[in-house]
Design goal:
DNA-binding transcription factor activity; 151 residues
């Protein structure tokens, strides 16, 4: 009954059309963003190459131009491989930094444990030495009474 209702059908059709428009708009936006990302990645590659060249201040202008042309003509595959390698290396650096941080925390925790162990051991040894001292004093204050029963 509700399916044959013209008002319901009109609303459902309107909803479908709206959803289709929304989906198309989303796809267009994603495509534009992907284009922007690709453009920005290309710009990053170019700027990275330029920065490296600037750091080589001792090189002559001709050498810098040659290096830049070589990098520009290396090809998209080379640039992608380089980008992947940089990402992998950055990931490895982040992992190593995190691992070093964890290891520093672990070393700090272990130092605290060792310090606490040494403190407790020192207290235990001091208590043992105090007990031993008390026992020695007791023996010195009281003459030893021995019962020799030879029956």
């Amino acid at each position: 009954m509700a399916e044959s209702d013209p008002k319901h059908l009109k609303i459902a059709l309107s909803n479908r059309e709206s959803a289709a428009r929304s989906k198309a708009k989303k796809a267009l936006h994603e495509s534009e963003l992907e284009d922007k990302v690709e453009t920005l990645e290309t710009q990053i590659d170019i700027l990275t190459a330029e920065l490296k060249l600037e750091k080589r201040g001792r090189m002559t202008a001709d050498d810098e131009c040659v290096q830049f042309r070589i990098r520009l003509h290396a090809g998209e595959a080379h640039a992608r491989l380089r980008e992947d390698l940089i990402q992998q290396l950055n990931g490895e650096v982040r992992r190593l930094i995190e691992e070093a941080s964890v290891q520093r925390e672990e070393m700090s925790r272990l130092r605290e444990e060792v310090s606490e162990y040494r403190r407790r051991e020192s207290e235990r040894m001091n208590a043992n030495m105090l007990d031993q001292l008390n026992i020695n004093q007791q023996f010195q204050e009281k003459p030893q009474q021995t019962n020799y029963n030879f029956e």
